[in-house]
Amino acid sequence: MLIKGPAKKVTIYVNEDTKHHHVPLYESILAFLMHHGVSGATATRAMAGFGAHHVVHTTKIEVLSYSLPIRIEFIETADKVAEVLPTLYDMVTDGLIEVHDTTVVKVAAKEKRPEPGHAHERRQGPAKLMRIFVGEADRWRGEPLYDAIVKKLRMMNISGATVYQGILGYGAKGHTHKQHFLHLSKDLPIMIAVVDSAEKLAAAAAQIEEMIEDGLIVTSDVELIRLVHKHTLEEVSDARSESR
């Protein structure tokens, strides 16, 4: 299974009319990758191109439009690439294969829908609570600091974060920040609450600390009990699909 971190990107270039056991080569390659557990692969048809034979293939010339370049690309772990590469090498008798180091930043997939009759999924265990205190007016590279922190947490696969806006408070400098119906403060207290494992929050805290000039990070031990209703899982899956 493909996970976040170092990986390999494999790109294969073949002609559309190249055959392998009487079927198009690109179809055989996709079938081979799927049957050998590759996480996913995509074949795209080019509009024009030429290869080692120096013959231009283009959709503008009908007789040459049936031999357009096909590009097959997939990303996998180094071990999986090493497993499938020898067979791909034998299959591609007229084309090009290239392999590059890459980094998987995010892996998103639909949640598996729970079986009928199960109302919710229950998770329990020790965890850490991290609370981050900043000002509403604090900025990070041109955007609100609290917004940038939430984005950073999301990229680090932290399970969730909640932003709270205070109505009254003061910090180390002794300045009082409050909201009044005659005056809307632009620097109200902001608290970001996050619950996750100790290891993940330690890594997150190290990066967030570099973003904060004036603020506070507090961690404490908690017992996590999480109930996820099956309808919630379905809504999350639908939302992820719509955002792609």
Overall pLDDT? 81
DSSP strand tally: 16
Tally of helical segments: 5
Report the order of strands and helices.
EEEHEEEEHEEEEHEEEEHEH
Task: Give the DSSP E fraction (strand runs of 2 or more residues).
Answer: 35-45%
Quick one: biggest sheet? 4 strands, antiparallel
CATH fold field value of the largest domain: Alpha-Beta Plaits
* Low-pLDDT sequence parts: 60-65, 232-237, 239-244
N-to-C span: 20 Å
Widest sheet: strand ordering: 4-7-1-8
Can you tell me the CATH architecture of the largest domain? 2-Layer Sandwich
CATH class of the largest domain: Alpha Beta
CA radius of gyration is 26 Å
Kindly give the count of domains.
Answer: 2
Given the helix and strand composition, which structural class is it?
alpha+beta
> What shape does the CA trace take?
elongated
